[in-house]
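Office hours follow-up: a student asked to see two folded examples consecutively, so here they are.
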Amino acid sequence: MNTKVNLAGVILNNPVMTASGTFGSGQEYGEMVDLNRLGAVVTKGVASVPWPGNPTPRIAEVYGGMLNAIGLQNPGIDVFIERDIPYLKQYDTKIIVNVCGKTTDEYIEVVERLGDTAVDMLEINISCPNVKEGGIAFGQDPKAVEAITREVKKYAKQPVIMKLSPNVTDITVMAKAAEAGGADVLSLINTLTGMKIDIHKRCFAIANKTGGMSGPAVKPVAVRMVYQVANAVKLPIIGMGGIMNAEDAMEFILAGATAVSVGTANFINPNTTVEVVRGIEDYMKRYQIEDINELIGAVK
């Protein structure tokens, strides 16, 4: 039985990985989760310099998921290279680094610094606010998506994954823009913008007012977007958004995702990723599927 999948020439032992920002860079979970069982570990966003993130409170529970406005708090690329890459290298899993920045130059600085490291792929988080354009996220303007993809590709030594924001009118326009810019892989969806109000204190539940919504409630939206993008571009897709178990993961694969990321579920059950890997293997046995690749985009 073959569970290996190919993402732009990078072969994963299985299609299951962690979603950025929900797994740190592996250390927090390493004692509880066998990282060797995962297809890849996707790190928390890494910037050129340390980012303090947003004021607290930054997380709120909502029906069917959670809101977060962490603000991409991270210790910066220096600490990441010194501390996190050596830790992840101990395991038989691929290393995918999520890269964030407030300007194109900031992205490029991180991409260049990672060029000669043991990192396997780069995931570019284009939901970051573009400071030069007045704070609109890079990922909400197709011209910006194509431009930043093209610039990153000039400097990247590893395959480039562009992570698409769902907070747009037509996700396929963004996917085609990333493809035109030379992206190797697409990942989607990032969080949906949401809000929660504390009616007793009469204030916002999160200091930032809005936050990114994730969890099971967003899954139908995410599956629909993955399906649309799979039928609009020729790039492999990493699907994510509310995956809680293997059944959820299989929906994304059948919709056209080559791999899947587990995010919010890690906070509820740290072992979710490994359970999803096992569940996919059980599904393949039950339906006598010899090769996982037969299932990718099988629903038309």
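And the second, which I mentioned at the end of office hours:
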Amino acid sequence: MLKRLKEDIRSVMDRDPAARNAFEVLTCYPGLHAILWHRLNHRLWRWGLRWPARFLSTIARWLTGIEIHPGARIGRRFFIDHGMGVVIGETAEIGDDVTLYHGVTLGGTSLAGGKRHPTLAGDVVVGAGAKVLGPVSVASGARIGSNAVVLRDVPEGATMVGIPARVAGRRPDDAARRREETARRLGFDAYGQTDMPDPVSQAINSMLDHIQATDERLVEMCRVIRKLGGQLEDVELPDIADCDIENGHRPRSRAGDRDRS
């Protein structure tokens, strides 16, 4: 259980540049608190203790502003950012490395029993205010834009926008995945907006592609220089995500980046 908790804390710190340390995440992040409550409630639900599970889930909703039915099945490294107003229904299924922002609803559209809530595969991001309704499937790597309403299955790597949601783009290639990783380092991926089809996002995506290409070219140049016998000083590259620009603080460096210089 302690290992799982450490994994949850690390997933928050990896995806939220505002998270400064593990103690802050553990004490101040209602999304993490809601997940911890849900693990207890889900276990009670599976043991057949349905009323205690529902009662404790109600307490968790009062404390966190996040409503997760104890019957919902949730994978590892699940991250709810901000969290207020998130609703996850009884038969919802969520894979690993999924991110939800505030105001998201994974709801049902039928009064009949059985499967009536969405299934989210791994590495899905659902933007603020989005609704995914009914027993639809959201394939891995998909992005649901802010305030979108999803009523049908979402293909792998698709970006969905609008009401009802439609496919606005896809991320099928390695270049797009590298862009996403760079975006996360720079803090541009919040609220599922990175691949939105608007001029600002297109400009940001072009910048991310340029940064990624430049970084790869510099690494290759350093390798060639060393191969030819040149001497290069090991320099720690700054971590952009840790740079406090508003307060004028210098960014911290990552020791793991020395080999890239």
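Two things to take away from it. The mean pLDDT is 82. The first helix runs from residue 2 to 15.
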